[in-house]
Amino acid sequence: MTVRDFVYLDIERVKSIIAQVEAGYVDTAARSRSQTAGLTGAVEGGLLTILKGTAEAQSLKTTEESETRSLHDYIYNRVEKALVDHGLLREIPNDMLGRSERALHDQLRDTDFILARGMVHLNDYARARELLQHYNELGAFIARASVESAEAPSTKAKRELLKAKLTRMNLDKQYLKGMQLWFDVFYGARLVVKMMALPGQPNARLVGSLLSEYLRDARDAIVFKYTSRPTSEWTMLAQVAAVPPPVDIDAAGDGGDDSAEGIDHALSELFEAVSGLEIMAHAVKYPEVSVTPIALYREHRRSSS
Fold first, then answer.
1. Which of 52, 115, 140, 200 has the smallest C-beta neighbourhood within 10 Å, fewest atoms?
2. 146 and 21 share one domain
3. Quick check: helix, strand or coil at residue 192?
4. What are the tens digits of pLDDT across the range 168-227?
5. Which range of residues forms the domain containing residue 73?
6. Which of 18, 145, 155 is nearest to 77 (CA)?
């Protein structure tokens, strides 16, 4: 028996898949309560009745949300089984021929459904940008705190130690400003999961963005509970989005339309330059594979003993 602790579940994709493979889908089986019909007349009973009606309505809403979420979890079980039964799901690494760094790149194709298990990294770009914005202030605080707790022979020695630490931990303001601009333009507020899907191959990763509306907890709560580098293996159901080829960044701007003139020529060069920057900044690079996560969860398996 397996119990899944879902961190992420894209229920819209789950419903789309089950509708296609099972030729139909009942949108929800959450039961509504008959009490809702009587809540509209609650005002006549005075303040206590209003409060009681509000409490009942809130209780009903919470119950229905809980039932709907449980239904979604059950639908996921059906989706995974249906994909296996129809031969549409590849398990990684079990279904891979070889486990080299190139294996994911050479064997996976766009739109493949995959079920992978491995260690994950959670990269919260919004959080990273916030930390970057206050990097020097945090560095100064950490330096002072460490010096205060250090055993130095004299006050002068502490001052020298603090000066050295501040110098080492302080970054140029223009550099920090440029890094913040880079985050704003290319990364935004994405939460990205990177899964090491092949044992012994840390660069062969599955990479995908997690949408906030399908997270089971707030993103800061997830990082607080599991850290950005969880110490246990997670499981991910995903669909391959793109298999990036090896790219020569220096050549990314070549191939512009030399025959264009005036503004067309200028725009052509601009778009070629932007293309080169996007390739440099893209979060998914060979030999990684870009995926669309459908579910991300931890498993609890009952032992056979």
1. 200
2. no
3. strand
4. 878 888 888 888 888 888 888 889 999 998 888 888 899 999 999 999 999 889 989 999
5. 2-26+49-124+188-301
6. 18
- Tokens 């906030």, residue located: 212
Phi and psi at 234, nearest 5°, equal -115, 165
Instruction: Provide the CA 7 distance to its chain's centre, in angstroms.
Output: 10
Domain match, 217 and 94 both = yes
High-pLDDT (> 90) share of the chain, %: 27
Q: Residue holding tokens 């990294």?
A: 121
Both 173 and 196 in one domain: the answer is: no
CA angle 231, 208, 275 (to 5 degrees): 135
How many Å apart are CA 246 and CA 251, to the nearest integer? 12
Cβ–Cβ < 8 Å for 236, 295? yes
Convert 125-160 to b/e letters by CB count within 10 Å (16 or more is b).
Answer: bebebeebeebbeebeeebeeebeeeeeeeeeebee
**75 φψ region: left (φ > 0), alpha (ψ -120 to 50), beta (else):** alpha
234 and 285 assigned to the same domain: yes
* Single-letter amino acid, residue 3: V
In a domain, 32, yes or no: no
Q: What is the mean pLDDT of the chain?
A: 77
Token digits of residue 243: 């298999």
- Report how far residue 7's alpha carbon sits from residue 99's, in angstroms, rounded to the nearest whole number: 27
Gyration radius of the chain's alpha carbons = 26
Q: Span 12-20, mean pLDDT?
A: 90
Distance, in Å, from the CA atom of 104 to the CA atom of 244, rounded to the nearest integer, reads: 11
Q: pLDDT class for 79, splitting at 50, 70, 90?
A: very high
pLDDT bracket for residue 120 (50, 70, 90)? very high
